[in-house]
What we know:
It is a single chain. With about 325 residues, this protein is of the alpha/beta class. It has helices at about 10-20, 30-55, 125-140, 170-175, 180-185, 190, 200-215, 220-225, 265-275, 285-290, 295-305, 320-330; strands at about 1-5, 60-70, 75-85, 90-95, 100-105, 110-115, 120-125, 150-155, 160-165, 175-180, 245-250, 250-255, 260, 280, 310, 315-320. About 40% of the residues lie in helices and about 25% in strands. A hairpin with a 4-residue loop joins strand 3 and strand 4 (about 90-95).
Amino acid sequence: MLLKDREIPIEIFILEAILRRLPYNHLKRPKVEEDLRKRYAGYYGEQSIDYHLSFLEDNKYMFLHNLRLPWKDDTYFQIDSLILSPSYIILLEVKNMTGTLFFDEPAKQLIRTKTDGTQECFSYPITQSNRHVLQLNSWLRQHKFPNIPIISYVVISNSSAIINTNSNDPNFYEKVTHAVNLPEKIHPLIDLYPNKILTVKKLNKIAEQLVSEHTPSKPAMLERYGIKSEELQKGLFCEDCKKLSLKRNRGSWKCTSCNSVSKDAHLRGLADYFLLIDNTITNQQFRSYFHIESRSVAAKLLQKSNLPTSGSYKDKTYHLSLSELEKWMTRN
């Protein structure tokens, strides 16, 4: 049973918004484009996992993807995929990488060798996976749930990647696997862990608690690239010609470049604003950022957006939470 689907990462929405508003000749644009390609590759890699998980018996498991849970001192830990059963929990650490992947056990590092011979070093996925098991165990104890075995796998989603290691652990290839092997690794667990520790009621309670404590984040990606908000172009984006050239015309948005018409282009624009600038917006800020002259027109558009508000009529502020923003982006 799927209880929490795999959403498009918020980083992808932010990078796309940056590229919509970053001038084509900006020095940081190639880096943003490269990172967006990597983010999409990672997302598609995680999606491919879901196909292989579909071979498991759906009525025996609960699936939750992309969880971000509170840890200690206002920090969080993230889990790519979690599979719940009455007898055990399966935790998946998903890596979407190509080339030759060398798991250097003594140095606790992952070295990737690309087809052109260049190498990159990454954090050791097994260490990450073990840490997430520790954190999830702590989370379960904190909520007074029964002690239950947690089995973790590092899953390489790209089937063309070559896995090598210098590890002396005979169980290394039980911990690290290609995605296609997941069903045959998971199926035997039913016999290895026959004792049902959790009732259906308790299992549902754990799943509900996990979903309720999932806390999305909105990383400050402009700061990460050293891009100031003043460097971004204002206005509304035309979905047809990909230019910031929409103007208000007789109750619609008309593109001054290709003449296409949109009724709700301001919704995508508002999403860009919330992704890149702030979680709140006023009438004056709305008019300034999207080149709207009329205060009353701006007020009507904001009102129709059905955003929560605070303040009086003249000082009204419109809010959009991150969880609502994610729903908005997938809807619009």
